[in-house]
């Protein structure tokens, strides 16, 4: 919820800032905090930025500080009338937590920073060591080919908002 009003946001770990639709920004009277150049699949465009205060996740976690969001049209907003998406939650909101993505159960869990690895081991899961991509700060994993002796064959971006996986040859 934002300011106590329920909203549906898509989790996109490859998105730096958040994104809200113009309709949501207007409905909640989100305060404009500037302009920026946004870069996406459609190219570069000038976008308005707003401050998203008082963001509380469905599990009750209060993110504790305002987030910055781009105001932009969002095609997924109208894809499913039963799930009216009003934007995306980017990695800015998650960077203070250890995150467990549980796709089979369609959920994610947030642990206080530094505690997620112990909880994962307790559940029989393994740590995946990640690195931050310089400049963008996007979370990446080293992808190794069998028999490579541990040398990274590629760098994979962890992007929960992507609809497919891609690799450059």
What report would you give on this structure?
The chain has 169 residues and is mostly beta strands. It has 3 domains: 8-93, Acid Proteases (Cathepsin D, subunit A, domain 1, Beta Barrel), CATH 2.40.70; 96-127, no CATH class; 129-169, no CATH class. Helices cover 8% and strands 37% of the residues. It has helices at residues 22-27, 116-122; strands at residues 8-11, 18-20, 32-40, 43-52, 67-71, 85-89, 97-102, 107-112, 130-132, 139-144, 152-157. Strands 1-6-2-5-4-3 form a 6-stranded mixed β-sheet. The longest helix is centred in the last third of the chain and has 7 residues, at 116-122. The radius of gyration is 17 Å and the shape is globular. The relative contact order is 0.19. The model has no long low-confidence stretch (mean pLDDT 83). This is Peptidase A2 domain-containing protein.
In short:
The chain has 169 residues and is mostly beta strands.
Number of helices: 2
Overall body shape: globular
Provide the structure class: mainly beta
Read across the widest sheet, the strand sequence of neighbours is: 1-6-2-5-4-3
CATH topology grouping of the largest domain = Cathepsin D, subunit A, domain 1
Largest sheet: 6 strands, mixed
CATH class of the largest domain: Mainly Beta
Unreliable runs: none
Strand content: 35-45%
CATH architecture of the largest domain: Beta Barrel
What is the chain-wise order of helices and strands? EEHEEEEEEHEEE
Mean pLDDT: 83
Tell me the distance between the termini. 42 Å
CATH superfamily of the largest domain: Acid Proteases
Total discrete domains: 3
């Amino acid at each position: 919820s934002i300011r106590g009003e329920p909203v549906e946001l898509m989790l996109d770990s490859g998105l730096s800032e958040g994104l809200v639709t113009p309709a949501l920004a207007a409905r909640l009277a989100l305060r404009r905090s500037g302009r920026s150049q946004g870069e996406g699949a459609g190219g570069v465009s000038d976008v308005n930025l707003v401050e998203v205060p008082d963001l509380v996740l469905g599990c009750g976690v209060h993110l504790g500080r305002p987030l910055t969001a781009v105001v932009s049209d969002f095609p997924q907003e109208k894809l499913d009338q039963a799930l009216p998406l009003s934007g995306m939650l980017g990695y800015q909101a998650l960077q203070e937590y250890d995150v467990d993505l549980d796709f089979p159960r369609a959920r994610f869990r947030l642990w206080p920073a530094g505690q997620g690895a112990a909880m994962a081991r307790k559940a029989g899961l393994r740590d995946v060591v990640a690195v931050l991509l310089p400049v963008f700060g996007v979370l990446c994993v080293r992808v190794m080919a069998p028999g490579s002796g541990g040398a990274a064959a590629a760098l994979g971006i962890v992007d929960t908002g992507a609809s497919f996986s891609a690799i450059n040859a």
